[in-house]
Amino acid sequence: MSFITRGFTGRGRERDDRLPPGQTLARDFPVLSAGPTPEVDTDEWEFTIRTESGVEHRWDWQALLDAGVEDVETDIHCVTHWSKLGTSWRGVPLDALFEEVETDAGYVMAHSYGGYTTNLPLEEVLDGQAWIAIDYDGEPLDPEHGGPARLLVPKLYFWKSAKWVRGLVLMEDDQPGFWEQYGYHNHGDPWREERYW
């Protein structure tokens, strides 16, 4: 004897079209890290871009700010199935930092204080797609969320937005970063559910 009417699927939930498949809306901002939280003072913080030929471009904190801070409102999606919609950030677009950088590289490895790395296609961090974020929700970025500065690449899962970012190394060939070596997808598009490989 059946107690469930054919086609009954329970009470419907409202679905926001901005949520990728398999994601759940988060009201808070979960903190997930692979190790201890580095404490980096802005007086000591430095950011470098090293080309595939070894040329280095450097910015201290003030030089980063002088490159031009802008407001960013975007959705973010974590591989652990949570998403936050309409988040507010302030940061420097990577486009501004790449103005003086000459490269033929196709990929970039982001490096963080604390040793974390993640790989990205260069074409997906340029043309208004990525920032060095310094503020979240109107406040300086807390260390547990990657402060004083983190990479912000909202089109990809959030592990690609490296916390405590200190530099980018340009590469001709793609290489896996920290989580990618442990089975996370090499690319990480939330709309394709590129979580693992």
Please explain how this structure is put together:
Pfam families: Oxidored_molyb (PF00174). This is Molybdopterin-binding protein. Residues 1-40 are annotated as: Disordered. It comes from Agromyces rhizosphaerae. InterPro entries: OxRdtase_Mopterin-bd_dom, OxRdtase_Mopterin-bd_sf. The chain is mostly beta strands and 197 residues long. The chain has a single domain (41-192), classed as Sulfite Oxidase, Chain A, domain 2 (Alpha-Beta Complex), CATH 3.90.420.10. Helices cover 7% and strands 31% of the residues. The chain contains 3 helices and 11 strands, in the order βββαββαββββββα. It has helices spanning 61-66, 94-97, 178-181; strands at residues 24-25, 46-50, 56-60, 70-77, 82-93, 107-112, 117-121, 131-136, 139-140, 150-152, 165-171. Strands 1, 4, 5, 8, 9 and 10 form a 6-stranded mixed β-sheet that branches. Strands 3-2-11-6-7 form a 5-stranded mixed β-sheet. A hairpin with a 4-residue loop joins strand 4 and strand 5. The N and C termini lie far apart (43 Å). Mean pLDDT is 91; it is low at 1-13.
